[in-house]
Every structure is written in C-alpha cells, then in structure tokens.
Amino acid sequence: MRNFKITFEYDGTDFCGWQTQAQGERTVQGELEAVLSKIFKKTIKVIASGRTDSGVHAKGQVISFKMDTRMKPDEIKRALNGLLPSDIAVHAAQEVDDDFHAQYSVKEKTYRYTILNRKYRSVFLRNHALFYPYVLNVARMRKAAKYLTGKHDFKSFQAHDPLRAERQTIRTIKKLVIKKEGDLIFIDVTANGFLYKMVRNMVGTLLAIGSGQIEVGDMPKILKSKNRKNAPETAPAHGLCLMQVKY
C-alpha cells in the first residue's frame, strides 16, 4: 500500500461542510471520495487535516489516503482535476512516508478571515467576505489581538458541539496579524491547532472591540473566564478560509 498526500482548494459556498453527512447532503469529503473511488474502482476513505463547517472555504486543505496502485502522483492529480466539480481543485499530489497522517502529523494551520468594511456590499465578495458597513477601529482590534497570542486556554472561544467535545482546550497561537488593504480587513491566525469555531468566535469578539461595543481590556477578561457566554456572537462562516497546513 502506498500513502498519498493531496493538497487542494475549494469554495465552501455550496457544501454542507467537509464531513460526509448521514442524510446525503453535498460535502467536500463526499465529492472527493466519490471521485477517488471512481478512479481506483474501489471504496476510498480519506483523512483530512481537519473539518471545515458549511460555508467555510479552503485554499490549502490536505488529505491523505492509502492505495495499492501503479499510478504516479501527477496522474492522480490530473485524474482528480478532470473529474472533480468546478468548486474543488487539486494543487498537488505526492507520495509520502507510510507514517504520514493528514490530521495527526499537522504542526500548524493558518486561517484567514476576510471583512469587507465599507458602506456598500460587493456582488463578487458576497460569499467570501463578511460585509460589515460600520466603522471599525483597526488599532483597537490589533491591541486586543495581542492578548490572544501565545499559549492559552481558549475555552471561551470554543463553540459547543457534542460530537467534538475536546477535553483539552489549551492551544498556542503563534501569530495573529490584522491587515487593512483598502476596504478589506484580513485577520490571519496561525496556531498549532484550533477548537470548534475558535477563529470565528475570536473574530466576533474583535469586531465587537473594533466597533466600540466592548473595550480592549475586555479581551483578557473573556479569555480568562473560560466561559463561551462571556464572548460576543460568532462571525459568519463565509468569511473564513483555511489558507495553509504545515507538517
């Protein structure tokens, strides 16, 4: 059996998230496994670096799977791109060591949240950026973001999900950068791992601070409380994108 690593992108707009659903909803995992099973003429199950929710996008998602085949990685890449729907595209396919695991071998991930901060909405960015027509103080957001970097218990920013009840809620944010380019604000977060809806919950709090609803000094209080009820509402899914996974 050979072990393969596939790096790919997808537009999450028309997917019910990454993971295969019991009711047969359209998912990224379902589309990939269906095409791979067609290519190899046998059932294929893939392992992803992590799950993304409905509406979340990816520019650098990674999967791994094992298969006894003579196909070269480039041939697998071409076959996938020839059969996958237009909202999924493969960047690279490569053979990796037998012990490589798309989820457990991850060292860090980077997510980007995009905000369109102006008075009128965009037709072209409607599925890829949060339209936020209110004034945002980016300097305040950057000050608050400093409290999030480093090793912390991020329980206050973990959404409840009985299927993903992580016992360990300590994570290390290696970098959190907020950039403003014209009408766009990018929030890039790199960490060794993320809790369920962690980035979107942090963005929701940063938006509340940037708009003056709460104070910069509330960020460390929310973090230390370890209580999700103390943090503002979750930012919408469509502004989030998985940018890169490092191994």
Task: For the structure shown, list the relevant keywords.
alpha+beta; ten-stranded mixed β-sheet; about 30% strand; globular; about 250 residues
Outline:
By secondary structure, this protein is of the alpha+beta class. It has 5 helices and 10 strands.
Helix content: 10-25%
Radius of gyration, in Å, reads 19 Å
By oligomeric state, this entry counts as single chain
Give the integer mean of the pLDDT values: 96
By DSSP, the count of extended strands is 10
Q: What structural class results from the helix and strand content?
A: alpha+beta
* Amino- and carboxy-terminal Cα gap: 22 Å
Note the beta-strand portion: 25-35%
Residue stretches low in confidence (pLDDT < 50, at least 5 long) are none
Overall shape: it is globular
Number of helices: 5
| Element pattern in H and E | EHEEHEEEHEEEHHE
Biggest sheet architecture? 10 strands, mixed
